[in-house]
Sequence to fold (123 residues):
Amino acid sequence: MDSKDLSTIPDDMQIPGARIPDGWQLIACVYDGRPTRRSGTVSCYFDNLKTSKKYPLHESRYEVIVREARTGKRVTTLSVPGTTGDNGGCPSFVMDTGDTIILKPLDGRTLGEKLRPVFSATK
Fold:
């Protein structure tokens, strides 16, 4: 997953500039996406290759585990759908193995919407 996909997470849910771990209550860990079904094809352009290549595009879901920062105790597990951005979901780079597929990436806004009820409950 590209970090640019998470750059749209709401400001009030990002790690504060002053990293004060004592103030952290929850940590959300995002795990690899899993394909759910094929939804089409996407053409991705890669600067280093100076060419475009078509890949199968799949709907996806990402597992997000929220833990207490101090204890590591699991608070909840969420399943968050991938969404298509302006670039159709193309990543910055691909390890093309011949059977490569592209998953719709996790968007920060979507992640924030799913996390807000959990984070709001701790205030």
Observations:
- The mean pLDDT is 81.
- Residues 108-120 form the longest helix (13 residues).
- The helical segments are 108-120.
